[in-house]
Amino acid sequence: MLYDDHDWVGRYRPASKTPWQGRSDGPGARRFHEVFICDDLRQPLAVSSDAMNFGLLGFASDEGVKRNHGRTGAVKGPDAIRETLAKFPANVPENWKFFDVGDITCDDGDLEAAQQCLAKTVHALLEQGIFPLLIGGGHEISWGHYQGLRQALPETEFSIINFDSHFDMRPLNGKKQGSSGTSFLQIAEDCRSRELPFHYTCFGIQNFGNTSALFNTAKNYGVRYVSAEAYHSGVSQKDHILESVLSEKLGIYATVCLDVFAAPFAPGVSAPQPLGLFPYHVLPQIKTLARSGLTIGFDVAEMNPKYDCDGRTAHLAASLISTFVHEVVSDRYSKGPLSCCE
Length: 342
Known about the structure:
The protein is of the alpha/beta class. It has eleven helices and ten strands. It starts with 5 loop residues before the first helix and ends in a 10-residue tail after the last helix.
């Protein structure tokens, strides 16, 4: 059990009601602060056996960003997203459960241990039939999130879709440590060790944000990608590529690095992008993923309140999460519970 794991307990912070504040508009007009249940994973959750269960989990870490020489501050990202999402309308079925299960922290610089604890938490959510919605924190969240999915599905092929300006396939540092820029190389190597295919697709790649060595690494690992330039030029094959991924009928781990968006929409990130994507480049694809019934985990990373302006990045992050949830509602209402481990 998680509460018997002393390392996990030391890094776990139960959910607080503090971020979940907002206006109440009466019956039939619920907002997310009226939907989310703040809970503690050190005890079993009261999940619904006949409806969807979502678990919002924060990864309060920017140790990976620090190692990657980026702008720190994403450690406070989870609560910034909560505070904004709290005020959004929640047009969701009454019997669906939404749990805020708190955060995994990384206060001591031991990112590897924090990622292992994140993995255990994701695995515990899946075991209880709870769909993991993760919020960060740096994009080092992906290595921990993936490990949790892998623990639940040890020998199963699944596909990774990353909305990101970077491949995040940099080599480990001289101490053989990962960072916010290494998660997907770590995942590729884990797949290789398990003799499983590595299915990885990136949308929004910046030509000037990745070295030629990174493009070669991506090519060598068979990565499919669409550049940000292709989106803006109007000749993008993004929909065709997404349809191709979905046609494989594999479970999908979907992750959004907020630095995929142009800086006016997402100033609060580690690496702001002057030529990044627009929100409506990405939202239709998020809707498609949610409606596919194939997504087994979803996260939003690189929320950095320290550099946010007018809460733009937090609002964008909350919009992505709200869009994903409401599209799942549209697709799955009246279909019974979703088994996240099928």
